[in-house]
Structure to design on (328 residues):
């Protein structure tokens, strides 16, 4: 992937859009999915928060922050998103302005799409156009209602994506390597402060920095200083909330739901039962949004086999996609 990007960077800037058919296909796909996305979002905009977790948790915490009352019963969920929404309420002077807050949340799905578009502008690789189109397709077909629902999943996806992207920019020389590391630390902290699975951003950020060679652009003492400062920056930004939560849990004012999500929610299912339930339950439901699950699953299986032809594909598939998507 890195080799393709760097090659396209040199080739694209010198010769423009060399592959016209993929370029046109990517543009058509992006325009079509953009229209569908806009129509889907416009159908329930403006509107208030109505999804369960958005009402009972995320927006409730935002209202508590709005009235200067640090929330309790957070179950360990970080508070970057609620404080963002609370800032909007404070700016407008009322917590009854949920339609504005929902409109603001569109910055995250749109921002993720723009990352792909920016990558295309830099490297002239039409794969990024298809990436943007697939992202919008997922939001409208697989996860309808999620873009501005008030859930934290789309915002955390944005922070994870931009973490990897700034590392890629540093690798390709678009921005200085140390700037890429610092921005990566900030974005990874943003992911972890949005939702706990955002810790994936830190793992991906470190792995990408080592795998794609951004650290190789730094030498000696400079490399050590950049690594230490990046780690310190991440801990300074992400650490305080988790220290505060653990302290509140120690005092008995809050409690984590991690044990429930990883064990009790599965009841008496064995490891094999959990695996089969994941395939025949949640994964089956997701695939059914795209068509007959067995056919869609077959296509996904072929794509995974194709991914295994590349070392990076095998790392992503067996190191992240399957364990996270099936076992969790």
């Amino acid at each position: 992937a890195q080799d393709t990007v760097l090659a396209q960077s040199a080739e694209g800037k010198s010769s423009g859009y060399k592959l016209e058919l993929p370029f046109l296909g990517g543009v058509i796909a992006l325009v079509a999915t953009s229209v569908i996305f806009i129509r889907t979002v416009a159908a329930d905009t403006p509107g208030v928060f109505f999804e369960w977790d958005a009402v009972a948790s995320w927006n409730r915490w935002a209202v508590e922050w709005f009235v200067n009352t640090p929330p309790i019963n957070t179950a360990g969920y970080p508070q970057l998103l609620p404080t963002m929404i609370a800032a909007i309420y404070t700016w407008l002077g009322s917590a009854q302005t949920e339609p504005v807050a929902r409109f603001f949340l569109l910055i995250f799905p749109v921002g993720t799409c723009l990352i792909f578009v920016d990558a295309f502008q830099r490297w002239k690789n039409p794969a990024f156009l298809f990436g943007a189109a697939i992202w919008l397709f997922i939001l409208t077909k697989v996860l309808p209602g999620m873009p501005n629902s008030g859930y934290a999943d789309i915002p955390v996806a944005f922070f994870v994506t931009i973490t990897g992207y700034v590392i890629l920019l540093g690798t390709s020389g678009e921005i200085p390597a140390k700037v890429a590391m610092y921005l990566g630390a900030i974005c990874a902290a943003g992911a972890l402060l949005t939702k706990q699975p955002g810790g994936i951003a830190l793992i991906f950020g470190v792995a990408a920095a080592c795998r794609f060679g951004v650290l190789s652009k730094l030498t000696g003492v400079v490399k050590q200083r950049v690594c230490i400062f990046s780690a310190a920056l991440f801990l300074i930004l992400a650490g305080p909330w988790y220290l505060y939560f653990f302290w509140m849990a120690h005092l008995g004012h809050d409690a984590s739901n991690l044990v429930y999500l990883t064990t009790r929610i599965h009841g008496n299912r064995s490891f094999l039962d959990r695996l089969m339930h994941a395939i025949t339950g949640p994964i089956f439901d997701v695939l059914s949004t795209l068509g007959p699950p067995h056919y869609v699953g077959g296509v996904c299986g072929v794509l995974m086999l194709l991914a295994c032809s590349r070392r990076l594909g095998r790392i992503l598939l067996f190191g992240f996609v399957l364990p996270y998507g099936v076992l969790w």
User: Anything to note?
Assistant: Residues 108 and 286 are 22 Å apart (CA to CA). The mean pLDDT is 87. DSSP finds 16 helices and no strands in the chain.
